[in-house]
Amino acid sequence: MRRVIQFSTGNVGRHSLRAIIGRPDLELVGVHASGPAKVGKDAAELCGLTEPTGITATDDVDALVALGADCVVYTALGETRPMEVIDQIARFLAAGTNVVGTSLVWLANPRHADEWLRDPLQRACEAGNSSLYVNGIDPGFSGDTLVYSACSLTTRISSITVQEIFDYANYDDYEFTGKSMGFGMKPDGDPPMLFLPGVVVSMFGGAVRNLADHLGITLDEVRQRDERWYTPEPIDCIMTRVEPGGMAAVRFAAEGVVDGQPVITLEHITRLTNAAAPEWPYPPDGEPGVHRVVAEGEPRIEINTHISHPVFDTTDAGCISTAARAVNVIDWVCRAPAGLIAVDEIPPAEALRGLMWKE
User: Fold this and answer.
1) How does DSSP assign 158-190, residue by residue?
2) What are the pLDDT digits (tens) for 70-108?
3) Residue pair 3/25 in contact by the 8 Å Cβ criterion
4) Pick from 216, 206, 161, 217: which is nearest to 342 by CA?
5) Residue 176's pLDDT band (cuts 50, 70, 90)
């Protein structure tokens, strides 16, 4: 039985909290909630369950560190406040508590993370004899697990394309995702955060370089590209309202280039409702979203992954899968040698343990 703390209860955190409560091999011992409206509430209420857990949310990080838990599931938004998040995670690691999470997406490929991010966390792992693992569905699964499965079915590869094609209309995260992608912005406005020089490469370039390492090839460069689509008609959705002339779809990628040609591409096509960017690719078979890998080679391999749920919509289902990439390896990370862990260090079967149980 692993004693676990859930850190944050937002779009991903409420789903990882629900998973922790449900699993018989995990014991929830603490919950962090930064907003005053959530502090003091039972964990069950924060994730839509009805039976109280007896564990109430707190904003006292010191109190959570003092619990001496086996592991923290850290899902709080970190990309807009990385130094604060590094400090919080490092406090747990230095105290001997392992951390799995979905925050600081640069760490999904820790070997390629910048020193300012990697080094303080590595030192904290050494001080507490603890481990840190970060992953998700994208960045994460699409570019570090699904792509390996596709490539294993070929005898030769000429190029690899990893895509997320999703309708984000029902994703209630305008303050970060919406603003960073620029939804609603006009063409003459300042570029959104995501498309400033080097940002896409910083977030997704690690996966491109990691694939190149495993393929044994040397890239000439990793570059980024983006394209935006502006709606002629108003679009209303949960994400935001986009007025005519505002941006309602975006297409961006990090590309690993050899001899002037992209050979490894991680691309996102993100729209608000099906009406946006009708000339761009859509998911197959009328699905609302897809994580796709295409390995051009001998033979050509294409794998399309669709996520659904009987109650939650597709965006929530994606958040559940993102949470799963962290929660499912808690036990292995707790047994791992100290340090920053990459997904290829984890035996695939270890991510299956504890997933099936009787009520």
Assistant:
1) EEEEEEEEEE-TT---IIIIIHHHTTT--TTSP
2) 999 999 988 889 999 999 999 999 999 999 999 999 999
3) no
4) 206
5) confident
Rg (CA), the chain: 20
- The CATH number of 2-137+317-351 is 3.40.50.720
Does residue 43 contact residue 51 with C-beta atoms inside 8 Å? no
The model's pLDDT over 268-309, given as tens digits with 9 standing for 90+, comes to 999 999 999 999 999 998 888 999 999 999 999 999 999 999
C-alpha span between 223 and 105 (Å, rounded): 18
Do β-strands 235-236 and 221-230 pair in parallel, antiparallel, or remain unpaired? unpaired
Cis amide leading into 139 (omega within 30): yes
- Tell me whether residue 1 is exposed, middle or buried, using C-beta atoms within 10 angstroms of its C-beta: 0 to 12, 13 to 18, 19 or more: exposed
What pLDDT score was predicted for residue 249?
97
Return the pLDDT at 326.
97
Cα–Cα distance, 334 to 68 (Å, whole number) = 13
Question: What Å distances lie between residue 48 and 43, 82, 170, 320, CA to CA?
Answer: 9, 29, 18, 14
Location of each CATH 3.40.50.720 domain in the chain:
2-137+317-351
Closest CA to 160 of 215, 206, 198: 215
229 class by beta-carbon count within 10 Å (0-12 exposed, 13-18 middle, 19+ buried):
middle
Q: Model's pTM, two decimal places?
A: 0.94
Range scoring the smallest mean pLDDT among 29-33, 75-79, 153-157: 75-79
